Amino acid sequence: MRNITPVTIALAFFFLLFSSADVRSNPDGELLVDKNVTFALQLLSPLSTEVSKKGDRFECKVISPAHLAGSIVSGHIRKVKNAGKGKGKSEMDLAFDTITLPDGRIGGFNATVLEVNDVAHAGQNGVADNEGTVKGKSRVKIGVKRAVTGALIGAGIGALIGGGQGAVTGAAIGAGVGVTSTLAMEGPNLEFKTGTQFTVKTDAPSHRKQ
Fold first, then answer.
1. Is residue 132 part of a domain?
2. Residue 208 is assigned to a structural domain of this protein
3. Integer Cα distance of 210 and 201 in angstroms
4. Is 114 domain-assigned?
């Protein structure tokens, strides 16, 4: 049997630590995802401004980073605007909430959308058929809304509890909640079929929402 030396153990530990440096646990054991990590997510069910409503949940499968592939990112719709028959933009605000790793660990997931890639050859109900493939970047315009109001409310509460330092802490807590990506397109309906891929970048690590 091959001897396992302390050096081998140290190298293995270093490799594991480095390969998953973007996901870590705090001293309390809570799973945290670092800031500025780029993920490719694949939508698992269709979304549409015609039928989706505020508060509806959605899930995406992680495509990359490779060592997190297969994890599930869950989120909810913060806002839906359907232009209908009139002229104007249809909009949908997506908020990401949690990530569940293949081993079952769950942590907060705070991210904004950078790019949307549509699905070609989709079948019925917006589900990609056997020939369904992801095509180039869509015409969807992407904006980011941050919870400025939440930060101000948090600062006010923090100031009442702990003075100036409390205000700073409260503002940080408020700002870490409610970051959304506004996806908009001219026309009566904005639709994302199953299999649509979102490229997202994580914001400051967020605590898991209970």
1. yes
2. no
3. 23
4. yes
